[in-house]
Specification:
By secondary structure, the chain is of the alpha+beta class. About 40% of the residues lie in helices and about 15% in strands. The chain has 8 helices and 9 strands. The protein is flat, with a radius of gyration of 26 Å. The mean pLDDT is about 85.
Length: about 240
């Protein structure tokens, strides 16, 4: 039993390493050749995991080979559009200017129920409001409403708005994020002083603290049901 446990742990680690080599894609974003690699890795890990008489290398070496093949194909896809089209396919327009492309729908093996589901998932209730729908190479359907039905934006109103930028988390579950402090050109002494003024003399008692590009600080203590927003920096200093 111990042998099976150890073999399972080793094969799990090897499978996880092979998947990490493939990059940070979600399952729904995998290209066809990547799906094949995932299925084969799972099969290669399962066979020696249950059969004690099968050497571990019979599962690990093919995983290494698959990871190498995946790397080569990914490299070739980045270098050549023709290779990428062959391995990954191309986007297919399923709805163009509000008209369903029946021929493309059948060619892509997508029925109307799948299309309606994708339209609802895209946040559009009425199919008459859809301007364009595209079947992506990864299998997702991207839905875009007609211009008359899309949400109003500041650009439509002729307004100019400042860039928001990403907020900078400085404390997460009581742990100071020192890399983010460096990115924001801030010091830990400044952080502790600012948190103390907000009523948190001990940083370990903070559940979440982040800084916005406008210089506002969002802070919430552990076990608290409320958060506070304070202006702690001039917007000109909030640069990262």
């Amino acid at each position: 039993m111990l042998t099976i446990f150890v073999r399972s742990v080793i094969l799990y680690g090897a499978s996880l390493l092979a998947m990490r080599v493939m990059g940070k894609r979600q399952v729904g974003q995998l290209q066809p050749f990547e799906v094949v690699v995932v299925i084969m890795i799972a099969e290669l890990a399962a066979t020696p995991m249950g059969g004690v008489g099968i050497p571990l290398l019979y599962g690990i070496l093919p995983m290494i080979a698959l990871a190498v093949c995946h790397g080569l194909i990914s490299w070739a896809c980045m270098k050549s559009q023709r290779v990428r089209r062959w391995f990954c396919g191309q986007p297919t327009v399923l709805v163009r200017d509000g008209v369903i492309c029946e021929k493309q729908l059948r060619k892509s093996a997508v029925d109307l129920n799948d299309l309606m589901e994708a339209i609802r998932t895209g946040g559009v209730l009425d199919p008459m409001e859809v301007g364009t729908a595209v079947l992506e190479p990864g299998g997702q359907i991207s839905v875009f409403p007609k211009a008359a039905n899309r949400p109003l934006t500041p650009a439509d109103m002729g307004l100019t708005v400042a860039s928001e930028g990403l907020p900078l988390p400085l404390v997460m579950d009581g742990e100071v994020q020192r890399e983010n402090l460096k990115r924001g050109r801030l010091t830990e002494a400044w952080l502790r002083e600012t948190a103390g003024k907000a009523g948190f003399p001990d940083v370990s008692g903070i559940f979440f603290l982040c800084l916005s590009r406008s210089g506002e600080m969002l802070i919430q203590g552990k076990g608290c049901l409320e958060s506070r927003v304070l202006q702690v920096l001039e917007a000109e200093r909030a640069v990262w």
